[in-house]
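Lecture notes, continued. The same structure-token format from the folding unit now serves as the input rather than the output. Read the line below as a description of shape only.
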């Protein structure tokens, strides 16, 4: 797509990855501990003027991202590689811009997304995580893959996900289209991949709580359908840990020419 001028300003999209352990989520915080705070501070130092960013999907405290996408409008001219290297110079070590692209003024990091992807990485072991502390969720009881896969099938499709919605969720509608929920295991690690048109606040962590209860035999697979049909948060399991949750990023119309992944994807199990 061609890039149209915005009264002398150009719209840029950036793809960044971050370890969320030290932050209070994406959104700007009064104490400056939001990912948005450190990114906008870095942009301001690089450009010499304040810039406000809009992201593809807000992440909660201690949640990680392999490809958060943001956009902003700016008047100064820079090459794409300069936005990557220049902004990274001012970012902390646990946050990095991986790519930069110009986009048309019709592009919006959140509204233009066709779908969003998350992964949850879980460590199954009688011993708590150490090297992976803060990077994985943890269970010490064995999980049954077949039971969890059977439960996951109830969630695929368009549903009212009110039972998996946090009380503070600001979404207009609880109805979402869950396109994919894949489960696989490699050694002691489990990986759960989610893709939907959009997610409710804590939706994945609440689903994870239910999947783990089913995987441990505390509930049968059909319980997932009972929870879904209840449309009541009280029917579901407690919200699971944020540590193993990764925002894999949005997918857009290919016409925008934006990457679908960063190099950080190669690190995740």
């Amino acid at each position: 797509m061609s890039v149209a001028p915005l009264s002398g300003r150009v719209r840029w999209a950036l793809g960044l990855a971050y370890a969320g352990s030290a932050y209070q989520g994406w959104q700007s915080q009064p104490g400056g501990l939001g990912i948005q705070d450190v990114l906008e501070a870095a942009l301001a130092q690089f450009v010499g003027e304040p810039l406000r960013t809009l992201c593809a999907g807000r992440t909660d405290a201690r949640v990680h991202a392999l490809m958060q996408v943001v956009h902003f409008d700016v008047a100064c001219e820079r090459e794409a590689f300069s936005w990557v290297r220049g902004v990274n110079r001012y970012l902390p070590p646990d946050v990095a811009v991986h790519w930069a692209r110009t986009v048309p003024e019709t592009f919006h990091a959140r509204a233009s997304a066709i779908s969003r992807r998350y992964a949850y990485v879980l460590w199954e072991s009688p011993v708590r995580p150490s090297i992976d502390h803060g990077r994985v969720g943890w269970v010490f009881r064995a999980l049954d893959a077949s039971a969890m896969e059977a439960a996951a099938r109830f969630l695929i499709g368009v549903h009212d996900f009110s039972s998996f919605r946090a009380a503070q969720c600001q979404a207009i509608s609880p109805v979402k289209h869950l396109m994919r929920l894949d489960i696989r295991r490699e050694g002691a690690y489990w990986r759960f991949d989610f893709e939907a048109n959009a997610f409710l606040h804590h939706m994945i962590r609440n689903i994870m709580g239910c999947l783990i209860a089913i995987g441990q035999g505390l509930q049968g697979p059909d319980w997932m359908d009972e929870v879904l049909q209840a449309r009541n948060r009280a029917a579901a399991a407690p919200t699971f840990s944020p540590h193993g949750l990764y925002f894999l990023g949005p997918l857009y119309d290919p016409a925008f020419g934006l990457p679908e992944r960063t190099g950080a994807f190669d690190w995740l199990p």
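Point for the exam: The chain has two domains: 10-108, 115-246.
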